[in-house]
Amino acid sequence: MSKKQIYLALAFGIICISSSGILVKTLEIRQLPLLGVACYRMLLAALLISIPTLALQKKELAKINSSQIKALILAGLFLALHFGTWTLSIAYIPVARSVLLVTCHPIFTALASRIFLKEKFSLRNLLAILVAFSGIVVILLESLLNLASLKGSLIGDLLALTGAITIVGYIIIGKKLRADMTVSSYATLVYSVCAMLLLPVALISGASPNIFTSSDYLILLGLAVVPTLGGHTIFNLLLKNVSATLISIAFLGEPLGASLLAWLIFGEVPSLQTFIGGALVLIGIYLVQLETPTKNNLLKENK
Q: Is the pTM of this model over 0.90?
């Protein structure tokens, strides 16, 4: 896969995932249970991608071993936590704010690498982390200082941050699994696990399938096709050829696209604190990623 193809695929994926917050917000306005939205989105995505997978990848699916199954379940759990918490955050905070916080996961990836992989921090990397965290603090302070007027804002912020933390595990595990699995097999199994884990929680929250109208299901189908299959699956496809770091960077395009769409469609204008905090978060994340060692090239050409 050439560099040009990789960057085109990344651009396409960014455009696709930028629609996620808008589609979720549309269903939230209709007062539908958001855990159900997260669940049925992933269920539809799993069903759609399983059709070609079962037809073309029967041999590969039959060869999956126990260690891979455990890793797939763990990846599905992380993905379920990511989609569940982030989708719920849309009920409490504007789309731009939610998407900005959920895409700050490269910060937590860097911290996890330092804690669990014992990777050393350069002074520049440490400063980048501090800049990014200062941005998160600015955003959270707005919620803390305005608890009375911004009802539920802090809850939404924390839900979105939880979504950011949990997707780190999903990306790291996916990088390892994609080395030996096709994207269709990997996506089918992980999306299925994710949907099955979300299903009981969704039903408990009152999201039975019969409360959704045909137009609601059309929007859910859009969520399954555009940001999930067209966005997340594209990134899963690229995991075999590029680093998990570059995939994390690609997610940074989502806040810009989602903010623009939320402004145009819902008239949501981010607050001054969100602008300032968001700028600090994005600058910090960008500086962290620039510290990727040159010997671990972000792009790897197929041999």
A: no
